[in-house]
Amino acid sequence: MPHIAAFDTTTLLAAFAISAVAIAWFGSKMAGIADTLADRTGLGEALIGSILLGAGTSISGIVTSVSTAASGAPELAVSNALGGIAAQTMFLALADIAYRKVNLEHAGASAVNLGQASVLIILIVLPIMAYAAPPFAILGVNPLSPVLVGVYLVGLHNSHKIKLDPMWRPKKTAALRQEEEDQEDDPRPTWLLTTLFAGLVLIVGCCGWVVGTAGLELSARFGISQGVVGALGTAIVTSLPELVTTIAAVRRGALQLAIGGIIGGNMFDALFVAASDVAYREGSIYNAISERAVFWMALVALMTAVLLLGLLRRERQGPGGIGWESVLLLGLWLGGATLQIAQG
Question: Which of 108, 131, 137, 175 is packed most tightly, with the most Cβ within 10 A?
Fold first, then answer.
């Protein structure tokens, strides 16, 4: 098989575009399956959204980050991870616009999502601390990387406990959409749905490898920084499944699945940095990135905090039919993207 550099620019652009469409198309099929499995397993939309839908739709992103880190491009790997989280958080604002009945964060209130948003902030702040700390690695891996995995697993366990025995519940309103209102009627057996979901994950993952490899080569040819390509190029493309599945879940009325899929997917995406640290063989990846990547970490922490406040406040109706938190999320992402593009 010829090396990626052997292909001309037109072919690379075509491969990038085709992979993007494939990621969006096949990723969109995951929402319906995840919603059905949430009902059948009894785990609930928020938790299934986090584990199955969140991780499944993120497979293209982790393949992109790991493959580019292994190729010696730490900036692209980390920017892809953090840029994807920022874009996916912004997607909730777009979903809020699509759900015209009431503010999405009001109707999809869930204690599980609140807990996972809190864990996500921890997962984002820890790499910032590693960046600021003196360089240290064992066999090329920073000790923080396994800590991130541990925090993620503890966060999932905590979310499951919240689901089983919540210590508080959202106030019941006419606009609150509860899982019991959605009854699955898919005639396909569970084993077939699980197999189909696994197949979709495999296809999306392969497309993610193409996006990452082509994106790295295109950034070199066009002279665009890896940070910009990662945060605003590969990150958005590999996040397309989250956008499509979130809108699809909202239209199905599975609001907690939509919010849980984004927040849970973002938690999983935070592990991209840990996986990239293992793949990057020139030392700790936390000390190989620039302030541009740290900017995206700070932006993600800020956007998640805004989302968390929105979920707690549960504003019924904001300007233009969406919540104030959605307006802020759109503004923060657009502002961050503009600053990064201006920086070059």
Answer: 108
